[in-house]
Design a protein that fits this description.
seven-stranded mixed sheet; 7 strands; about 10% strand; alpha/beta; about 375 residues; Pyrimidine Nucleoside Phosphorylase, Chain A, domain 2; 2 domains
Amino acid sequence: MIKEAIGKLVMKENLAAGEMEEAMREVVTKKASTGQIASFLTALRMKGETPEEITAAAKVIRKNSLRMNCREDVVCLDREEITIEHETILRTTNGLSGGTNTFNISTAAALVVAGGGLKVAKYVKKSFFPLCGCADVIETLGVRLDLTPTQLERCFNALNICFIHESLTHNGLEHFRALREKIGIRTLFNLLDPLINPGGANNQVLGVYDPNLTETMATVLMNLGVKRGLVIHGKDTLDEISITGKTKVTELKDGELKSYFIEPEDFGLNRRTLAEIKGGTKERNAKIVREVLEGEKGGKRDVTVLNAAAPLVVAGRVKDFKEGIDLAEQIIDSGKALGVLNTLVQFTNSEGRFLRGELAAEVR
């Protein structure tokens, strides 16, 4: 099927859901050759992925991924994590030597909302030096990621939060890292990563790298059964809500989509410069996250509470962003967010059995 799919894509023809699912099954089961996969992904990117194609691909990946037993009120905070594609590096970092443009905002925000009692499941992956993904920062903060699924569920239920490392998902894409590097551009893989959602969340905040994708990805979330979601793209921060300028938001609510723009001034926050929220190495970013949770004032705190407001709104804990920002600040100032981090470090390091090498039989 993948040969036929490539033929249609190079002619700028969209694939039907069934055609996309069949082609993706060949990719995941490795029936397709490396050359075919590269051609398929490139042609799809050049044509432009439709919501139907992304949805069909996501369903195939989800069938091959770990599923956790989580409560229905879980919220998923996922972004396009920094990956190895050259195009992603150019857009999200200062070349190859300066680290990330911003610190790991969504990581700090996840800890804040968990401190407020919201259930948060976040899918994370590592990057490579000098880039800094969420998994790199979480581990630098002292959190162990090599937990079994059972331990993750126990962590989630006890602490309101868990970070699910990509090695646990077994989604059929683990062996394509080298191929993604060779292709060198963003592909369907980048769009699928934040849709894996092992926690099965019905509410989701999703960051995207291109403002033209907010409606597309919001439609995909709706197709996948998400009840309420926000898809965001911010000035300078790309897949986070921006404190330096406008953010495009596409909201999914009650089966309908609505797009609009927000600015920090809309919520009583001062507009900040990119320098004020700049990140760096994993050690630098981990230090920033801890300082924010300890109550340090400034741009980094402001962008954290702004991004923490989004999942609080999506989960129905607050009625709007202004209330969400106020609640996020209360959570930080009360010490609850820092308490979540400290307890998470203690919990993950006290568990007796950790994964080594391949996943245990219980994953399968």
